[in-house]
Amino acid sequence: MSIQGITEDDIANYLANTPAFFERHAELLSSVQLTSPHGQRAVSLQERQMEMLRDKIRGLESKIIEMIRNGQENVAIADKLHRWTRALMLTADARELPGVLVRELMHQFLIPQAGIRLWGAAETFAGLSFTAPTGADIKSLASSLTLPYCGINSGFEAAQWLDDSATAMSLAMIPLRHGATPEAFGMLVLASPDPTRYTADMGTEFLQRIGELSSAALSRLLPVR
Question: Measured between alpha carbons, how far is 196 from 209 in angstroms, rounded to an integer?
Fold first, then answer.
């Protein structure tokens, strides 16, 4: 829209850059009538401005509440991770470490099922449940994973490490590595009856941290180099 060459943008720019206009024409603040966004009633320019400010404040309050909630969730996760890590550090007998790792992980993070296998452990631990024989395919898969696998359980061998593999609808498979070596010495598997608990599009940063901490703790079971 334009009136004799003057556009709405020209008017808006003039008012924005000439605040004294409303000081000289203060009556406009109350006489100009606008439609309220909260109904069909007419409100003054002042009232409309107040409503806009209230809407902005409500939006900021919602963002603050969301930030507080996220902060509380992060603190809760950090506390759980701290308790799990502490349990690993307090485990004196290396033979008990894989069991403690799995049990505490399930307890702290409410994971329905979890299992673990180590095929690179020292001979001292041969015959224990966590060193049970594993197939070449699962070893190759573990070494090929650069990030934890998350998705539907499509018959992976790792699901057989669980107490009730038939109910494991989704899995997270986390390779265990010693330092920066590409070959995995084991794998940690988390499972849920909920097919949406672990999905291909979910973030894996937290699972990566779990894998790094697990690998560091379980390095006690590897042969001395």
Answer: 21
- Low pLDDT (below 50) residues in the chain: 1-2
User: CA–CA separation, 187 vs 17, rounded Å?
Assistant: 66
**Contact of 202 with 161, CB cutoff 8 Å:** no
Token code pair at residue 19: 């605040």
- Residues 51, 59: contact at Cβ < 8 Å? no
User: Do the Cβ atoms of 176 and 183 come closer than 8 Å?
Assistant: no
Q: 118, 186 in Cβ contact below 8 A? A: yes
Pair of tokens at residue 25? 């024409």
pLDDT at 38: 59
pTM: 0.70
d(CA 9, CA 111): 58
User: What beta strand segments (E) does the chain contain?
Assistant: 2-3, 6-7, 33-35, 42-44, 113-118, 149-152, 170-177, 184-192
* Distance (Å, whole) CA 117 – CA 146: 18
Residue 130, burial from CB neighbour count under 10 angstroms (0-12, 13-18, 19+):
buried
The residue assigned the tokens 């020209």 is 10
* Residue 89 neighbours by CB distance under 10 Å: 9
pLDDT of residue 85: 96
| Distance from C-alpha of 90 to C-alpha of 116, rounded to nearest angstrom | 19
> Residue 34 and residue 40: Cα distance in Å, rounded?
10
